[in-house]
Amino acid sequence: MSKLQNVFFPLLAVVAAFIVGAIVIAAVGDDPLFVYGLFFSSVFGTIDGLSYTLFYATPLIFTGLAVALAFHCGLLNIGAEGQLQVAAFVCAWIGFTFNLPGLLLVPMCMLGAVLAGAIWAGIPGLLKARFGSHEVINTIMMNFIAAGITSYLTQYFYREPGDPILQTKHIYEQAHIARIAKLLSPLGVDLPQRLPLNLSLLIALAAAGGTYFFLWHTRWGYDLRAVGANPAAAQYGGVNVARNIVLAMCISGALAGMVAIGEVQGYRYRYYEGFSAGYGFTGIAVALLGRNHPLGIVLAALLFGALQRAGLFIDIFTDRVSKDLTVILQATIILFVGCEELFRQLKRRWAKPA
Amino acid sequence: MELISILGSTIRTAVPLVFASLGGIYSERSGVVNIALEGMMLAGAFTAAAVTAKLHNPWLGVLAAALAGILVALVHAVACINLKANQVVIGTAINIMFVAVPGLLSGALFDSTGSTPQLAREETLATPLVYAAFLAVPLSWYLLFKTPFGLRLRASGEKPEAADTAGVSVTAMRYYGVLASGLLAGLGGAYLSIGQNSLFTRNMTAGRGFIALAAVILGNWHPLKTLAACLLFGFAEAVSIRMQGVSSIPNQFIQIIPYVLTMVVLSGFVGRVSPPKALGQPYIKERR
Q1: 3-class DSSP assignment, residue A197
Q2: Which pLDDT does position A63 carry in this prediction?
């Protein structure tokens, strides 16, 4: 497929989704232009808007990369949601259990998150490689198992006594990572310290670069993509298919697990049940829209981050539409990207005169 | 007494699972993966409650829920069958979509943020739906395994090329399968909102669509065995509600049983599953 189409079809899907969204807005009795105007002003109007957009985009970069990496090996990881949940819990657990200096504790929390995500995704990978059981079903099931286990541990063992909310106690202050505002202040850039945007954004960008390098510039990445393209041919060519399936799932889970770094060490400083606004599922949309390419994923994550930011304002400043609108837009984008064939057929019809 | 009341609530909690999982069987037997049962149930649940709240007739609510389910299924069918889209991706999109759609519509219709008004007791409709669910099981078994229609539908999911050669329209059969899944999942949703409860609340299915999917797998895509799986899951839920706060077994453990069981069975540790062979593969007719 040509490079131009790689950009054209996703853009078309986004435009189509926004048109559908406009119809929905009008149907429930609001003004589409006003709502979309609000969307732009809430995102681009202020430093706050941009900073929150980047903040919301960060976990989506991770989950988008996670879904894409598995996809390059021919696997659909529907379980990023469970993987990042387990990772966040482990990250917090390390953070409030070990009272160590930051130089040790910060990387320990990160490593814990990454490993937990890798293991949680590795299980369905192993089951697929060993028994051929389908990763889609297993990852869905493990989302629910993750929710059950983390909720159990939080409720019975690690909740602050008397806390009505399902959340663990706070992590030690040494485990915190820096907020961007704090990082930039020595450089003379003065941002409000309350902004939640933190170091994890840079980690996410590095992960995108790393994923690109891994997939297209290493032997391992080549093997992994060979399995995704044609497992039988890869096997015949001497690639260990089973091992690559497990490897792909583990890396995918590790990427999903990195969401915990920003959410736990950079923002909430604890595990909080329901911290993830469906990041794992939105990651599927991000990967699809980004064409499973790291650069595309970063751009798609920015769009979805902007949608999430705008959702809050749409809730407050419109009469009838709620932030549900942004979720509907996301789902519509997935539908249109998924149905690319529709655009192809239309294009063919236009190309030849009737 | 205790036992009888647990059995009663087992049947009640199993009803939405029975509807949705039968739907899953039709769709998947025809060759189309349906992880969108959750979204279809939500569509049905909201529509049933909203229509009943406006028109004060639960029968119309049920009818509307069935239609809503079919409408959502139509999207799945067009995308997966005609446009050959990835069936898991489209299912995910539908699930995401219908967590949000009721929120938007309830704002427009009832000025609320996701729930519908409380219905009066006489505006709910539980018993007929319970009978319908348990009648639908043997009927589906008969339809799928004892009629030419059932044979054609199953052939489209097992060996679509062979079915096509024998003059069966694979496309039509898959449409029937997917639309039937929407209808049934919609009814399952209706039972949740205007049978078991008396209003719709945000995301009220709480994963039941996925439990239904688990039941389909455990039941090996067979209506009678799937019914057994639904009853087992219903029993687990009934026991977990009963023991809330009194027993030392945490609720969460009972809740994850269906999911763990599914993984165990799917991996062949216990029993053997044999999904339809062409499940998930778009059928591309060879050009002649």
Answers
A1: coil
A2: 97
Of the candidates A78, A133, A327, the beta carbon closest to that of B266 is on A133
Number of domains making up chain A: 1
In chain B, which residues have pLDDT < 50? 288
- Write down the pLDDT at residue A148: 93
Q: What's the whole-number average pLDDT of chain A?
A: 91
CB-based contact B35 A320, cutoff 8 Å: no
Q: What is the pLDDT of residue A302?
A: 96
Query: What CATH number has the domain bearing residue A222?
Result: 1.10.3470
pLDDT reported for residue B245: 64
Q: Which domain holds residue A260?
A: 3-351
pLDDT at A354 over 50: no
Chain segment A160-207, per-residue pLDDT in tens:
888 888 899 999 999 999 888 888 888 888 888 888 999 999 999 999
Q: A209 CB near a chain B CB, below 8 Å?
A: no
Residue B255 near chain A (CB below 8 Å): yes
Q: What is the ipTM of this complex?
A: 0.89
Q: Residue B134: what pLDDT?
A: 95
With tokens 């949680």, the residue in question is: A120
Q: Which of residues 31-70 of A touch B (CB under 8 A)?
A: none
CATH class of B2-266: mainly alpha
How many CA atoms are closer than 13 Å to the CA of B276, on its beta-carbon side? 29
In chain A, positions 106-165, which contact chain B (CB-CB < 8 Å)?
A: 127, 130-131, 133-134, 136-138, 140-142, 144-145, 148-149, 151-152, 155-156
Hey, which residues does A179 pair with through a beta bridge? Answer: A198
Give the tens place of pLDDT for each residue, A121-139.
Answer: 999 999 999 988 888 889 9
Domain ranges of chain B: 2-266
Considering only CB atoms, A338 lies closest to which of B90, B267, B268, namely B90
